[in-house]
Design brief:
The chain has one domain. It starts with a helix and ends in a 10-residue tail after the last helix. The protein is an all-alpha fold. The protein has 4 helices and no strands. The radius of gyration is 16 Å and the shape is globular.
Length: about 120
C-alpha cells in the first residue's frame, strides 16, 4: 500500500511541482530541469559520501524524478515561443529513448555481490 500511495503522490505532486517551478516560479523549463537535476546530483552525492539511509535517499530520488520528467518533457515539446524546443511528441520520445540507450551503454554495469 505504501508503494502505491507513494507512486500516486509522486506522480501527481511531482508534475504539479514541475509545472509550478517552470511557470509560476518563473524558472522556465530549462531552469527547472537544472534545479531538479542538481537536487538529484545532491542525492547521488549523499548516497556515496554520507551515512544517510539509502532507503530514504532512494525515495527522495524517486520523488524528484517526476518533476524533472515533467519539465524535460515540456521543454522538448512546447513551442519555441513558450521556451520549448517544439519537437513533436514522437521526436521528443525518440530523443529520450536515444538518451536512455546511450546512458545504458556508457555507464558501466557490474554484478551485485553479497556482503557475506
Amino acid at each position: 500500500m505504501f508503494y502505491w500511495v507513494t507512486i500516486m503522490f509522486s506522480q501527481t505532486l511531482g508534475t504539479a511541482v514541475g509545472d509550478w517551478t517552470a511557470d509560476t516560479a518563473g524558472l522556465g523549463y530549462a531552469g527547472s530541469a537544472m534545479v531538479f537535476g542538481v537536487l538529484l546530483a545532491v542525492v547521488a552525492a549523499a548516497y556515496y559520501r554520507t551515512t544517510i539511509s539509502h532507503t530514504l535517499l532512494f525515495w527522495t530520488a524517486f520523488v524528484l524524478t517526476r518533476p524533472l520528467d515533467a519539465v524535460v518533457g515540456d521543454f522538448l515539446d512546447k513551442p519555441l515561443g513558450e521556451g520549448g524546443l517544439a519537437l513533436s511528441r514522437y521526436s521528443a520520445s525518440a530523443a529520450l529513448v536515444v538518451f536512455v540507450v546511450v546512458c545504458i551503454l556508457i555507464v558501466r554495469q557490474r554484478a551485485a555481490t553479497r556482503g557475506h
